[in-house]
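Lay summary

Proteins are chains of building blocks that fold into shapes. Our project writes down both the chain and a compact code for its shape. Here are two examples, one after the other.
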Amino acid sequence: MFDIRTIKSQFPSLTDPDEPVVYLDSAATTQKPKTVIDCIGEYYLTTNANVHRGSHHLTAKATKSFEQARKDIAQFINADSENEIVWTRGTTEGLNLIANTWGDAFIHSGDEIVICENEHHANIVPWQLLAQRTGARIIKIPVTPDGGFDLNSFEQKLSANTKLVSIAHITNVTGYRQPVETVIKKAHLVGAIVVVDGAQGIVHEPVNVQTLDADFYVFSGHKLYGPTGIGVLYGKYPLLQSMPPWHGGGKMVDKVSFSGTTFADAPAKFEAGTPNIAGAIALAEAVSWYQKIPYEQKRAHLRSLQEYAFQRLSQRDSVAIIGYQPEASIISFTVKNIHHQDIATLLDQQGVAVRSGHHCAHPLMDALSLSGTIRLSFGLYNDKNDIDKCISALDKAIELFE
């Protein structure tokens, strides 16, 4: 059975008696279990060496662990091969890599790039820059009143000029689960490729990239109980092979000479220089930890937290909940006549960590006529007591303004 006390005890940052904190900002980044923290230390203590170079036993050991991590991630998302897994610094770098390689090679003047206005800035700005470089057009899909993806508008705006569609699996402000399967099928019918931003989705449901049939799927380690500075770009192998390199340097080459350079096959050609070796190994450890908890137990626990928080928040007349969705452990809300930053600051002073602001989603805020929201986002280490403490702190904050 799901034992919240056992799980919470595995997170040192949440069990420090000197600095107690109710952490409700997991959509921004999750806290890390001790096994992941120990994994990073163990690498530097026993295995520290560069990978894919050198002839000593430490580099062989490091390379073996590094590439085993790639295999573990490929298995986690059911990629056809570990060669479809490219290490990045995170979701943002993965999206930029696609824009600067596949995009520069295959997007031309007059082509259309389709994105929704509920996307994170990381899934908007790289495509805007690509459009500026190439003369392509950005086609905006409007949101529905609850901040969701307008599928009817999407179908109407698809055309023979559509070359790329980029869509979040689950959005970061409201937790809206996008109709990615339908979007992928319809985009493929017009010959477009589809990029899925899985930064939030990878945490909330099993991902099978072969069944999903996305051309690219990107996510970050730090939202999946892993370290910062490491992420994954999955791409169908023929697409990866068709793409030019982005960064130049060691490892990503086959042969370098002043008469011309030839490049390694994917994924190596996208991994110039010394990679985040410890981060990759620790991400695999995080995935191993995460998978030991049955999915249905994780889902039921997070769902119960979200429902409980929704019930408690709904009892307060001054609170307006923005786009409550059952698919992800996120609730965004505003408080009448009180700025979101003021609420977050007062909660922080009472030991409750939440996110406030526009959440790197200016277009969505504009569409909903909001300057920002307060966002609660839950991790596997949270319990209903955390929510009770948050609501108590929120009540005190509101009282200060009355």
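And here is the second example, written the same way.
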Amino acid sequence: MADKRDYYEVLGLEKSASEDEIKKAYRKLAKKYHPDMNPGDKEAEVKFKEVNEAYDVLSDADKKAKYDQYGHAAFDPASGGFGGGGFGGFGGSSRRQNGPVRGEDIRLRLTITFEEAVFGCKKDIQYQRIQKCPDCSGSGAAPGTQPKTCPDCQGRGQVRVQQRTPFGVMQTTRDCEKCHGVGKIIETPCKNCKGQGYVKATKKLTVTVPAGIDDGQGIALRGEGCDGRNGGSTGDLRITFNVRPHAFFERDGYDIYCDIPVNFVDLALGGDIEVPTIYGNEKLEIPDGTQTGTTFTLKGKGVQVVNSQRKGNMYVTVVAETPRSLSKKQKELLRSFKESFEGSNHPKWDKFKKKFFNK
């Protein structure tokens, strides 16, 4: 782990960076090193993976707290993995309770591509959860035996204690010390779970990512978390999505934005140009005399709203592309074109000069 760069250094941030600053830095760098923008560049590919790894940790409050405390060792199995693997369901008080206890929720972060978020997909995942021991079915007793009712509390899990005080005899209730509040005694513990009744297990699952999901949004899979105790219900699996930026498109909610370079001649003369969308190429009609920076709207070419057929829009901004490496003949034609104008061809600039410079 010694050769790993600090995650804050990777994203170019201070340790005090806010959640919004972390997200902005990630999007900027992920787009810079995106494989589509750097085909065949191995160094960019390595940095792209490094940026995504840093964001996966710093964008998760729990992982970030562990990283801030332990550094990379928080997620290094060789050093004990203080981070706990990034899932819940194994914490809580050591005191066992007699009544039904709902299983804890498990929280995961899943990184998906821009396209997977837009169109939806299926992802195979695996995670660890607490479940009933398959050998003893959660009883904690060895197969063929049963837990016995605690003789001290008669199965209630609590006992009443009387204590003399200067104000008289006080009566209080506390957890039974013999059964630790469970109400039962296990004389022959299950070897598989060592009498706990529950074990840690790896579960594999195919997750359906809904079309239109956005960065930071999530889904809850009911009953896929940790098993409950004493008849309590099972917890949920809660997945939050990290969406990688696209090399060309920018997303804001369900709308998509992009800049399209256009030859300045096409802007002057107008006509149809072909623009890429997430659904394929579309023709866009440009009026003659269109200025650079003009934005056009392609209705219904944005992202599908989650659990709906409605779609956002796509906003295309045309940017004049200045030609380079002109031939001698092309330069002469441009000079002739410039000289063909009588007077000024910059009415806005002329008004500005007249107003502020009296020219």
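What can we say about the second shape? Confidence is low (pLDDT under 50) at residues 80-96.
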